[in-house]
Amino acid sequence: MRRRDNIRQTNDIWVKLSEKTDISKINHIDWDFVEQDLIDFDSLSDEELNFYIQYSVLPLKDNRIVVYSTYIRIPEHILKENPTILLWEKDKINSILENKIRSKSKITFSKETKSLEAIKKILAKMQTLECSDITISWRRDKVVISYAIHGKNIKDYEDIIDIDFADKLRLSLINISYENQASKLIDGKFSLYILGKIREYRLSGIETVAGHSLVIRSYNMFDKETTLDSLNYLEKPKKIIQNIINENPYGVFLITGPTGSGKTTTIYTILNEQFKKHNLKIKTAEDPVEVEIDGIDQCQINEKGDKENRVDYVSLLRSFMRQRPDIIAIGEIRDSEVAKTTIEAALTGHKVISTLHTNNIEATFTRLIENLNISIDRIEDSMSGVLSQRLVDKLCECKIKSKDSIGFERNESGCDLCRNNIIKGYNGQIPAVEVARMKKDIDNYKKENFLEYYSYNDSAEDLYSLGLIDKNTKKLINLFQ
Q: Is the domain of 361 the same as that of 462?
């Protein structure tokens, strides 16, 4: 073990102690032992908790302390009160410190609270509530933090913060997302260690008449083992999706749905499966690159800044076509120019996958023709298929048989799995889908001419018959048609 004066290394953690510290009393201990020995953090005041966080110190019951971080300095009075010092991995310490804020209750901040700690506290609540996103909205005399759960803002969980403090939070969020503070439109991403793991977030910001509006979306780190099966796609629609990808030598495959419908996860899963199975050359144009997948050439769109450094969808797509990719993926078709370049890429012999914000397959073709100015003959020549999807509430394992003995309904009493959910009896979400495989032919965008088709009505019926959803969710899915 390497020694240098009063510095000792244990498990790659360097801790600088005072001259009077007895190094022989430094020990390394494991998780199981410490977990049983921690004090009750609920008994700590916010000031005490902030103190321990500031000095990277965790107190135990019997005049011992746990320390972490590189070359930290422990105040002399702490050393006198706690003669034994224990080294512990940083990740585990953070998890315990954040248990104090693993709560659905209201959160408040003092003027002394550091911006980054406040951000972590908000994000910890966001993860605890299993929110898809949060909105920080400036009002005339206050700022409101709203938490969206399954697409709905729950008023009971809102937090109110001071405008001056919210302005500090805004600047800190802009800084950690590498965005230009002078910009009125913010679109960045960042990652932070929250509740025991590194998590990815996307930040969007605009100016309003009252001040600002910030939206933070949470993204789970993409698991390379994710498949359409693990995303709970049923066999029939999954087979059509695979046929669209594998049976067409070229063409456009659109994945559509509203914000928060799982489009991004689906497209990354399809790309990852194709790369792993066939070792294909895949290139993506994204704004921003939300998930990094090793082996896939992912390119960041940059339409800001000076002219020499700008990279837009159209120029990047044209560069892709000169590099002979097997699949081109476009983060989102946002305007007519990108739509036309996407069609052009398909007509030059490429498989192209992209996303579009529409409610169902019929609305997708309406938007392509009427809003994005794509001619019908171009659609007939280029389209391979369309997948429309929504995420709906999935019944928990504690579900009970319906009174009519047909299907299941939620257990209003809940169980250990769903007791803390907003509505007991539901646990997680599952995709409801509509998918069409198309042939290159006249009027191929009309339902009666689809080569293969699975409707939202089919999805509702199958999910209900398998006991994955209840009658209310089944009715909701039928409305998507």
A: yes
pLDDT in tens, 115-173: 888 898 899 888 888 788 899 999 989 999 999 877 677 777 889 999 999 999 999 99
Quick one: which of 10, 20, 458, 66 has its CA closest to 240?
A: 458
pTM surpassing 0.85? no
Structure tokens at 389: 């999807």
Residue 343 lies in a domain: yes
CA atoms of 308 and 328, how far apart (whole Å): 24
**pLDDT band per the 50, 70, 90 thresholds, residue 448:** very high
Instruction: Decide if 258 contacts 390 (C-beta within 8 A).
Output: yes
User: Which residue range is the domain that position 18 belongs to?
Assistant: 3-96
Contact 429, 414 (CB under 8 A): no
- CA quadruple 191, 193, 197, 202: dihedral sign: negative
Q: Supply the CATH number for residue 167's domain.
A: 3.30.450.90
Q: Which of 8-12, 28-32, 83-87, 422-426 has the lowest mean pLDDT?
A: 8-12
DSSP 3-state helix, strand, coil percentages of the chain (rounded to 5)?
35, 30, 40
How many CB atoms are located within 10 Å of the residue 343 CB?
23
Cα–Cα distance between 188 and 195 in angstroms, integer?
22
* DSSP β-ladder status, 159-161 and 143-149: antiparallel
Instruction: Tell me how far the alpha carbon of residue 457 is from its chain's centroid.
Output: 28
- Identify whether residues 192 and 139 lie together within a single domain: yes
Residue type for position 216: I
296-323: b or e for each residue (b if 16 or more CB lie within 10 Å)? bebbebeeeeeeeeeeebeebbeebbee
Question: Long-range pairs for 74-83 at CB < 8 Å and ≥24 separation?
Answer: 74/17, 74/18, 74/21, 76/18, 76/20, 79/17, 79/18, 79/20, 79/21, 83/22, 83/25
pLDDT band at residue 187 under the 50/70/90 scheme: confident
Question: Which runs of E-coded beta strand occur in 183-335?
Answer: 186-194, 197-208, 211-219, 251-256, 282-286, 297-300, 327-330
DSSP state of 246: H
